[in-house]
Amino acid sequence: MGKAATTERAGGAGNGWPWALAGLVLLALIVYSALRLGPPGSTVVVAILVVMALGVLWCWAGLYVLQPNQAALLIFFGHYRGSDRGEGLRWSNPFNTRRKVSVRARNFNSDKLKVNDLRGNPIEIAAAIVWRVADTARATFDVEDYEAFVLTQAEAAVRHLASRYAYDNLEGESGSTPEITLRSGTDEVGAALHAELQARFAQAGIVVVDAKLTHLAYAPEIAGTMLRRQQAEAVVAAREKIVQGAVGMVELALRGLEARGLVALDDERKAAMVSNLLVVLCGERGTQPIVNTGTLYTG
Fold this sequence. Notes:
Helix content is about 45%, strand content about 20%.
């Protein structure tokens, strides 16, 4: 079985100002004793002065400074004693090794990765990730380099995310529930990326603050083809709207003529009128009126 993960705990540290003042008092006593008593004449006086000097070193050697959102890991001869998240002047056992770790939020933009989406289409994708250290013990002791760990795992997460979703809906695909794609499902894809990053970063005691896609495009080798496909879909959709509107207008025109009794149209004349109106309404170019003085019937 593997070793259990290290968990952050509070360390044996405290406010450093009392210790700083204590060191100053001891130093003042040493100076006063040296000036008042002159050269030490007995071993007792020497021993007292040495003890006070060691006391000054003990008080001041344990001092260190922590800024806001900064922690110090206290390590006593290789043993983790705890983490100090205080601010300002701090003090701990001088024999502790103090390793400072920033717990501020950090962010980076991942490189543009070329991957295949759910349908195998090559795409380019990148993400902006905001993260911070939540467990200083795990970040320091459970991974070799937590910053490099974050970069590597973020790239793996973005690659895996791209393979789970299609870039966009293909023409003709429909159903009761719209498919979530990388382009249309921004919120859902962002939530999925956040969850996967958090699962990967948990080993290092890292918390994901935010994660969003910043770049999404087809790979250059198929970008032109996909652009033409999208343009064709847009033209078809626009034509469909035009035809639907034209049919409605023709229907209204025929009903209006019949309701007012302005003209009696048989099936052949109705067909001719419908054809002419559709040509006028659906044509891309302006139409020229033609005055017909003849008849539809011959013979």
